[in-house]
C-alpha cells in the first residue's frame, strides 16, 4: 500500500484536510481545477462573524501545505481500483496512485438569472452578493451609473428554499452574510439606507445573532419580513420592488437604487459518476450517515468534506476538512495494523445506513430542470 | 382606527408605501427618550404585545407601534390610541429579549406628541391633573371632575361622590398637605431636573 492520499479540490476544506494529513505524515497530492488555490473563498473580502480577511484564511491554510504536491489547472477524469489501491487519472493525463481519496469539490453559487422576476442580467442595478463583495473589496460600491447608492435592498434566499428552482434546502450562510455585507456597506457609505427582505432570519452560529443585532442597533439596517415577488426597472434605472410586508399584512412597493441578490449554494456533483458517489435529492453528495459518518462516502476509501456535502460556513468547512483528515488517517491506520488483510467488517453497516437515505426527501433525486 | 377612504369608499391605506420609510422618527424618539428608547434592536417577536394587559383595546399593538416608529410612520403613531392606553406597567419592557423598552418608547413618543401640540382627552386630563397637584399638592376629586368634564360631569358623578363621602372615602372639603411650601419646593426641584 502506498501512503499517498489524493485530495480533490483546493478550497478551504481541501486545504485544511491536506495540511492535517501532511502533519500526520502522509504524502498528499492536492488537485485543483483552477490556477490558484482557495476555491470560492479566495475571491471574497471579509468573512463573518468577525470580519477576518478572507486572504488571511487562505494564506494560513496555504502555509500548512509544505511538502504537499499541488496540481493546478487539472480535474479528475477517472478513478480506478479499490481502497487502498486507487489510481486517479487527471485531465493532464497523469496517473496518481492513492491509498485514499478525499472529495472536497465544494459548491457553485446559484445562478441568479434563473430567478427571472428579480431581473438579474436584465436590469443593470440587480446584482448578486458575489458582485457586491467584489465592490466592497475595491471600496467602490456604486450603481450602474457610477453613483454611490442611497437605498439598497438585499434579498435573502435567492435560489434557496425555493421549489421553483428545485432547491428546497436552506443555504445556511446567506442570512449572516447579508447582515455582514449590510454592515460593510454602512461603514463605506454611512448615509445609505439598507432594507433586508427576509422570510426567516437564520443566524445560528456563535457570534452570528450578535452580528444581526449589531446591524440593527448600531447601523440601523432595516429588516422587512417578506419575500420579493418581482422587481421592475424605472426610467431612471432605479428598481421598483413588489412584495408583501407580512408584519403589517399589506402589500408593499419599495424603490431602491440597487438590488442585491444573496445567492445560495448549489451542489457541485461533477465527480458523481467518476468517483461513483451518490447524490441526494438536494444535489449534494450523500454521506454514509448524516449523524456519525458524515465524512465517509458509501464507497470505501473515498471520503467527503466541506460544502460538497451540503452548505457550510467557512469555519465549518475547515473543521469538516480536518475531521475528514482524521477519518482518513484512522482508515489507513487499520490497513497498516492488520497488514492489509484486516477485518473491516465493522465498517460494513454502511450499506444498510445508506439505504435509508434522507427521510425528508419526498422526491427521488432528480436533475435540476435548468 | 378610522380607515381613510377615498371616493366611492375605496380604501387608500391598503398598501404600504415603502418609499416613505425613514429613520427620522426613531432618531427623534432616541433623542427624547435617551438610550432607554432604543428601538432599532427590535426583531418583531411580539412578546410585548403578547403580555400587554391592554392589548385587546389597542388599535396598534406594541410590536406594531415599535415597527411604525422604526419606519417613521408618525401619523399612524400619533393617531393610535395605544399611546394613551398604555398603563406603564412595564410588562413588555421586563420581557423583551432584545432589551427594547416599549414603555419608554411610548413615553418618549407621548412627550414629542405633546410638544407638537397634540390635543385629545387623555392629554387634557393629564394636564389638568398635574395643574391641580401643583396647586394643592394633593388631589381634590370634585375639582378635577369640574375642570375636566364641566358641571355636567360633576352632577353625573354626584351620586357616587355622596356615597363615597358617607363612607368616609372622600372629603367634601379640599384636603391639604402638611407642608405645602416644602412640597412645592420639592416639585420645582423635580421639574428642574
From TrEMBL, chain A:
- List the InterPro entries: FAD/NAD-bd_sf (IPR036188), FAD/NAD-binding_dom (IPR023753), HdrA-like (IPR039650)
Q: Keywords for this entry?
A: 4Fe-4S, Iron, Iron-sulfur, Metal-binding, Oxidoreductase
Provide the FAD/NAD(P)-binding domain boundaries.
Answer: 4-117
GO molecular-function term, one example from the UniProt record: oxidoreductase activity
* Pfam families in UniProt: Pyr_redox_2
The protein's name in its UniProt record = CoB--CoM heterodisulfide reductase iron-sulfur subunit A family protein
Q: Which organism is it from?
A: Gomphosphaeria aponina SAG 52.96 = DSM 107014
Q: What is the lineage of its organism?
A: Bacteria, Bacillati, Cyanobacteriota, Cyanophyceae, Oscillatoriophycideae
UniProtKB/TrEMBL annotation, chain B:
Keyword set for this entry? 4Fe-4S, Iron, Iron-sulfur, Metal-binding, Oxidoreductase
* Gene3D superfamilies assigned to the protein according to its UniProt record, in alphabetical order: Alpha-helical ferredoxin
In alphabetical order, the GO MF annotations are: 4 iron, 4 sulfur cluster binding; metal ion binding; oxidoreductase activity
Q: Which organism is it from?
A: Gomphosphaeria aponina SAG 52.96 = DSM 107014
A single Pfam family, by name?
Answer: Fer4_8
This protein is called 4Fe-4S dicluster domain-containing protein
Q: Enumerate the spans annotated as 4Fe-4S ferredoxin-type domain.
A: 35-63
GO (cellular component) term, any one: plasma membrane
Under the heading InterPro entries, the entry gives: 4Fe4S_Fe-S-bd, 4Fe4S_Fe_S_CS, HdrC_iron-sulfur_subunit, Helical_ferredxn
